[in-house]
Amino acid sequence: MTVLRWRPAVLTDVDALTDLFAACEQKDPVGLDVEPDRVRARLAMPGLDLARDTLVAEDAGRIVAYGETADMGTGPGVLRIRLTNVVDKSARDQATRRLHDWLIERASQLRKERWPDLPAMLGTRCGAGDPERLQLLADADFSVVRWEWTLVRDLNAPVSATAAPGGVELVPFDRRYDEETRLAHNEAYADSPTAMIPDRESWPSHATGLPTFLPDASVLALDSDKPDGNEVVGFLFTLDHVGVDGRPAVLLHCLGTRPSWRRRGLASAMIGNALTACRAAGHHRAELHVGGDNREAVRLYTRLGFAHTGRGHAILTCRPPTDR
Ligand SMILES: CC(C)(COP(=O)(O)OP(=O)(O)OC[C@H]1O[C@@H](n2cnc3c(N)ncnc32)[C@H](O)[C@@H]1OP(=O)(O)O)[C@@H](O)C(=O)NCCC(=O)NCCS
Question: Ligand 1, residues 262, 290, 298, 306: which to mutate, most atoms within 8 A of Cβ?
């Protein structure tokens, strides 16, 4: 067994970390960034002190593990700290537990340094294909908030056409409606406890400003009776993506219908519209991630031909031991 060399990450690790993340995503996806630009942005995230908040393990000069504690800001009376524990399969026995212990310790320090008066909530993701780490987390009193599963659809299979409800026009994404779409998004996701509710600043990195965003395969639903403002009643964002089989795919990344427009077939029509656009653009496979507890959405997707891949990850949280 080789001895791993441990050190903090540095900005020049971007390519090596991108390789590690891509290899791990291929085996057991948890939604890590797999493009160098996004990994670079992650390492340069405001508030992330690389020297203290990250740890990498090298095996003969190759990075085989990465740990990170990230201050995700304060929620209602609590500091949220994200723990990232990424280990190449070849190094799991040596690195997973060591990183886990370091992350818990570092998270406690981070809270004391930055928000000594607030309790912390630790959050992390763990792939369905990593039962050992799931057990490690359960033993450390983490509990699963929810599972997210990856569903897939062959774009060559016929798409059943669902018409949009009367008075609604479906159009490809149009940047003029970007801010209005953000408001529609935040209204649609207001009741989803773990959903991100982006502000103006963080909105572009949510979808419409990403380099992988596909505007022509994304859909806006516009209420024709409200020509000035408030007319975006539904949206579906599509991204260029590498599928769970390692081949090119599109990702139906984010879908929502404003509450007063639900159960009229709008989401079904937007999905049908996007799938047709993706197929016309030469794509063959569509994937999406859905929360296992989001029954409405799972039913909708399976009705429209999406199937489970068996790939998915759990989102887990716990109070740090020092706060209990
Ligand atoms: C999930 C979501 C997008 C569904 O949007 P929607 O526009 O209501 O979806 P649809 O109307 O196409 O389908 C929803 C249900 O309404 C039913 N429906 C469709 N037309 C209908 C009509 N005219 N009358 C009654 N019911 C109807 C559909 O059959 C479907 O029911 P089923 O799943 O039991 O078959 C919406 O609930 C939402 O925005 N949720 C919050 C965000 C979210 O969870 N997004 C998905 C993340 S993965």
Answer: 262
